[in-house]
């Protein structure tokens, strides 16, 4: 995380031959570059897609290019087709929804021919500069895709504490809030309650992987070289058929007790597998973006490269309620765990050690429910039983613990300087029920579903979704009170003062983490935010 090595910025290419290998079949092709911009959609409102298309039509480029915009409608809606006709963009649909978003993209690839593809979501609002700032990276013929950071422009700004208290309890609350802020500093209630701000992910985690060629695709806001996607897909397709062919032949030999399978039988078997196996440039998977990244990074015949462009080039909507947030995070976590369990990149040929370590870190973090449950349970067990998780909270313990914690925090501060991280840490800890459910779903062999993320706030509150967090909060508080009472009265256990102090701080940290998620379940936009949102929508739709 300490090493920032951005790809040098290059000028946008004039023609296709500036983006391809001089030894390849397209060398010397001086025609203008062709680019397809995809907006896959299923059930999003046409007016939302209209805003995205309107911004895409404002994309500029310093040279002549052939750019086409496509609405990829898996909902087969006449209203969406009418929107495409009205705005002068292409419309593609299909008879079924096989493969969901990945299948939608594959269907579009079969019917288009652009040299490069810009992947957007239905709510992605690309900036006019997205191509002129990113196409220069493709002067290197080995660059397969460029990912740009995603920016959520609808994150709640929250309300300053004095104003919030004035609205809740009146004048005296406002006075108390001002006094507290004078001592502590500015306090904002309801600011980004779901910790959606992706700055830590893009500016630190993804950007610091550029040096290892391990930055992976995140879908929306990415630009792909068609040649790379198709070439890797063909190779992956061949590998899959070879693997299945080998497995079936092994089963035949076990049944027949023969050392070799007849050549004609083997060839017929291969042909049948070719016929039955689905060829798809984008893996039919809930996390098709990171899956495609793994396929390209592990391509043994080519040294495909990825680039994380450090500047925001589009804006989009974030989850505005806990139910939507939970659906999205369950999908992300379950998809990553499924890849880790069933097609682990650590065992793939073609990747460097650095790339494998980077991917391993991503997948490892999605197993966090296992140790987070232990981390949450240890102080509760100590308070209720006086059984400590270590042999003693003595000088030896603190000589090991304090240097470790200080150096770890300092290392994190250096690596993430200027990017707020505390809310992300507490959110990661309180995420354990969703993470655990995703892990259990994959272990049971069930497929992670492909629900679309709602783009509007769902009404109501979502207390049922945070019952585990409420249980941890209550148990932590009650057990801590019980342990201190038992210590002072001497009626139970063998508590030490050092152990109580240490575990009390530990528990308060856990409770603060749980409280953030509990508060998010009951969060609703303030009246001022509702008014601002309504005014913004009216301006956007031209009302």
Textual characterization of the structure:
The structure is a single chain. The strands form three sheets. This protein has a seven-stranded mixed β-sheet with strand order 3-2-1-4-10-6-11, with helices on both faces. A three-stranded mixed β-sheet has the order 5-12-7. The model has no long low-confidence stretch (mean pLDDT 87). The chain has helices at 46-56, 78-87, 100-110, 161-169, 171-184, 199-206, 226-256, 263-276, 288-297, 322-342, 353-365, 368-385, 395-415, 422-430, 432-443, 467-489, 497-521, 527-540, and strands at 33-41, 65-73, 90-92, 116-119, 125-126, 143-147, 151-152, 159-160, 188-189, 222-225, 305-308, 314-316. It has 543 residues and is α/β, with parallel strands linked by helices. The longest helix has 31 residues, at 226-256. It has 18 helices and twelve strands. The protein is 50% helix and 9% strand.
In short:
By secondary structure, this protein is α/β, with parallel strands linked by helices.
Topology:
Blueprint: E1 33-41, H1 46-56, E2 65-73, H2 78-87, E3 90-92, H3 100-110, E4 116-119, E5 125-126, E6 143-147, E7 151-152, E8 159-160, H4 161-169, H5 171-184, E9 188-189, H6 199-206, E10 222-225, H7 226-256, H8 263-276, H9 288-297, E11 305-308, E12 314-316, H10 322-342, H11 353-365, H12 368-385, H13 395-415, H14 422-430, H15 432-443, H16 467-489, H17 497-521, H18 527-540
Parallel strand pairs: 1-2, 1-4, 2-3, 6-11, 7-12
Antiparallel strand pairs: 4-10, 5-12, 6-10, 8-9
